[in-house]
Amino acid sequence: MEAGIVGLPNVGKSTLFNALTCSQAAQSENYPFCTIEPNEGIVSVPDPRLDRITKYIVPKKTIPAILKLVDIAGIVKGASEGEGLGNKFLSHIRQVDAIIQVVRCFEDPDVIHVSGQVDPIADIEIIETELMLADIQTLENAIGKAEKTARSGDKDAKVRVEVIKKCNEHLAADQPLRTLELNEIERAAVSSYGLMTAKSILYVANVGENDLEGKDPLVTKVREYADKAGASVVCVCAKLESELAELDEADRAEMLSEVGLDEPALHSIARGAYKTLGLESYFTAGEKEVRAWTIPAGATAPQAAGVIHTDFERGFIRCEVYTLEDLEEHKTEKDIRQAGKLRVEGKSYVMKDGDICHFLFNV
Length: 363
Ligand code: GDP
Prior knowledge:
Blueprint lengths: L1 E5 L6 H10 L17 E6 L2 H7 L6 E3 L1 E7 L14 H10 L2 E7 L15 H32 L3 H18 L11 H7 L9 E7 L10 H13 L2 E5 L1 H8 L3 H11 L5 H12 L2 E7 L3 E8 L4 H8 L1 H5 L1 E7 L1 H7 L2 H6 L4 E3 L10 E6 L2
Helix pairs in contact: 1-8, 4-5, 5-6
Bound molecules: guanosine-5'-diphosphate.
The site of guanosine-5'-diphosphate has 16 residues, from helix 1 and helix 8.
């Protein structure tokens, strides 16, 4: 799962991306299968449940879930017509699963704003418009081919044509596709087009050092806008975060308490992005390691096993599952088993957020 960070120039996007990824870079050794390009970084998703588990099962290593972030540079007004890095920018967005848009809410006379004044809603709308225009182009290119195939009697293509028309009407009414209700079949019919306004979005309001809680009316406007669009907002001061990222843990804790924050705002971005992507975690817990694994909400037990290794999905037999509450009540896995709380689940089991499991499989 990947989220792409976008934003107009000078909103603090690079500052934030560097802060997010610099404090986390050392952990990449735990994720050998994750190839990291220069404009990508992985961030861990802090999860207090890991601390609760390791109180009872003390491992050599604790490994949190991760998210891949991609820094997508280059959007300016006119990107859909090839302005700036236009097309390159758009092809990067097509590949990510969700979008994180950084909007500028900080005032600083030394940092020029591309449109002359700080206006986060205008920033959001510029990018949304470019993405909508690009989606319209994509659909225009697609419909001819889909209609031709539909005329030859292909049922799937007929559905595709109908969905393309539905999407076009929605975009023509100036609405992003994420607000268009489509059923599963309809969604699948257009999934290969990488429609950008259909991707979920998280807004990051980059606030000034004097407004860490985001009380500024500009931030309120972003929140109201996001509420209507069914999106979330996280407040961050990118400048402060980049300073925090460079400190060691003790100094970071001291600086956080000085400015009155409980944790780096980067943690809320990681969690916000995780939620925006519709992701959940399950855990594996043993003396060697306690680890969080990422699954889409609604994943079945074999799919969850497949996240650890594809062979686990293919050879899945069953899994043993317990909850964090079971662990807190009975203290050890042995006692959970004795109390009859260790559930045995089969192939059709739908994972619940926070399940702690062992998988049994054939190789
Ligand atoms: P990008 O073009 O969106 O990647 O923006 P940058 O991250 O390069 O930031 C542009 C300028 O704004 C840099 O000089 C940053 O130091 C400054 N900047 C970024 N975030 C903040 C912030 O939270 N407060 C203030 N005062 N300046 C910031």
